[in-house]
Predict the structure.
Amino acid sequence: MNKFEEMKKNYIPEVVNKLSDQELQWFRDVKFGMFIHWGLYSILGRGEWVMFNERLSVSEYAKLAEGFKAEDFNPKAWARTAKAAGMKYMVLTSRHHDGFCLFDSEGNDFTAAKTAARRDFVKEYVEACRDEGLKVGIYYSPMDWRFPGYFFPELYYDSALSMKEQCWKQMKELMTNYGKIDLLWFDGEWLAHGGISWSNGEWYRKEEWPTSEYARTNYFWESEKLINMIRELQPGIVINNRSGWEGDFHSRENRIGEIRTDKPWEACDTIGGSWGWYEKGQTLSLKAAIDKLVSSVVRDGNFLLNIGPKSSGVMDEEQVNRLHEIGLWLNKYGESIYNTRGGPYIPGEWGGSTYSGNKIYVHITKWVEDTILLPSIHNKISAFRILSSNKVDVQQLENSIAISVPIEERDPIDTIVLLEFENAIEWDGIKGIEDDVYGLADGLGD
Ligand code: FHN
């Protein structure tokens, strides 16, 4: 039995203190956030996996730090762009898989504070978020490509342990030195990507990523104990499911998935086709962006939309303009998004619904029929209106609610019909299933 098998066999996870529904309420209410991938990889403009994909050596890649001056870094501008887009929280990559820290880490020279920029970008970022009234989120990758123990944990066991030690140390720094952090977005608890394994007296190369054997490694990171330490330093912090622990919410990547109401979840996707800055990226259309947001919210989830700034710190102009367009849409229709829950109607090809108090917002994103028929509910409609125009017909029949809108009055992106009822909407929701951690079941993962 190798050391990892032994570690897994003997591991007893600590019990993690779960957050109350009240502590999670802000996350459920905000619905829409800005994800930012920014780091040395932004210099090359070929995405955040460039070091791995192009097999750049650790020393070769590290030289990029001396050119990372980020002279135009202006986190206030980032925060104002997020706010103008209708985003209520931000998540910044404090350190991605390449190991470069945007924050000052004791005894570590591979950071923005100790190289060309000589700045603690995370410090400036959290202050800018708070100044704009946005919730503060930090992304952190436990694994680090600079450690041979990441790729070959059985062979370079001590290196793997050093990587774990770095994770614990930097978590303490990030949770101690930057004031209140509202959200922690782990990403990269897997190991042994492209590594080799020894069995039956032979070495085997691991082809798929990540191998199921190393896709869930809470036993290696001691994830539950790590979460409890984080909660001690940041009571109430909302944490995703990619530390090796199940998380307060579930992250879905590049996909929306099914409606799920028993546990908060969040879909993340990119505005430019790549997480890190990608020169050849295509900007998401307004309709596609709103579709993703609405599809997430009617399924009781959040939507985290990523933008990858250029290495200077400047965001792409076309992407910023798109974010402003999204903000204008939310200025008009935000009441049907923020502070609602997904349901009570099960989403379909026609769209879906959100509800709050005695109101249901029916989001019709595709007129599959001229009249949309929804199951009636035991609650009398007292009023109705269409948010984008003034012509809608709603009939509450014995077993259905019939909604029709003249073609010329339908909104090309999302026709939203507000139904008000005599009593508050009561619905016992839908229990979901825990998706595969990285959506690998769908073949997704990177
Ligand atoms: O490997 C990362 C990737 O670079 C990016 O950060 C995404 C964002 O959710 N997460 C991982 C891939 O699943």
Observations:
- The first strand starts at residue 32 and ends at 36.
- The two ends are 31 Å apart (CA to CA).
- Confidence is low (pLDDT under 50) at residues 439-446.
